[in-house]
């Protein structure tokens, strides 16, 4: 990665670090809140729990060739990206439970993969069959 050797680029990285790391606080707060929701509402709905360990992997810090600060960054990214993936699965199951309707198709929109078995947008009969 030649771009990392550019001193101006590295300076920009240092400037952005506080912004990146400031996200850790809301991630942790939201993590706790989503887990309360997940454990409470999924039980009430009879939905299967989403297994957290299937989505969050914090393992790259074990690589010997990384510097200490890279290991910390890898742990952060493993947590943050895995957490958002985990949340996506929780919210996808919630969406399917309450209202599995595809969004209206339009240019530029990339539909979530979990929508593949949802009712077509505007298909009232299919919706009523599934949810009424």
Describe the structure in your own words.
The chain has 132 residues and is mostly helical. It folds into 2 domains: 2-99, no CATH class; 101-132, no CATH class. The protein has helices at residues 7-22, 24-45, 68-99, 124-131. Helix 2 (24-45) runs parallel beside helix 3 (68-99). The longest helix has 32 residues, at 68-99. The radius of gyration is 20 Å and the shape is elongated. The protein starts with 6 loop residues before the first helix and ends with a helix.
Topology:
Layout: H1 7-22, H2 24-45, H3 68-99, H4 124-131
What series of H and E elements makes up the topology? HHHH
**Head-to-tail CA distance between termini:** 55 Å
* Structural class by helix and strand composition: mainly alpha
- Low-confidence stretches are none
Helix share bin = 55-70%
| Number of domain modules | 2
Based on Cα principal axes, name the global outline: elongated
Major beta sheet, specifics? Answer: none
Helix segment tally:
4
Q: For the residues shown, what is the average pLDDT?
A: 92
User: What's the total count of β strands?
Assistant: 0
**Strand proportion:** under 5%
Overall radius of gyration: 20 Å
Concise description?
The chain is mainly α.
């Amino acid at each position: 990665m030649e771009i990392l050797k550019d001193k101006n680029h590295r300076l920009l990285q240092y400037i952005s670090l506080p912004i990146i790391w400031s996200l850790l606080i809301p991630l942790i707060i939201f993590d706790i809140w989503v887990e309360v929701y997940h454990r409470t509402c999924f039980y009430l709905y009879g939905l299967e729990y989403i297994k957290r360990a299937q989505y969050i992997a914090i393992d790259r810090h074990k690589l010997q060739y990384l510097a200490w600060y890279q290991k910390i960054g890898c742990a952060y990214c493993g947590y943050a990206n895995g957490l958002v993936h985990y949340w996506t699965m929780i919210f996808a199951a919630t969406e399917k439970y309450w209202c599995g309707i595809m969004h209206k198709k339009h240019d530029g929109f990339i539909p979530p993969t979990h929508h593949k078995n949802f009712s077509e947008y505007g298909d009232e009969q299919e919706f009523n069959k599934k949810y009424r």
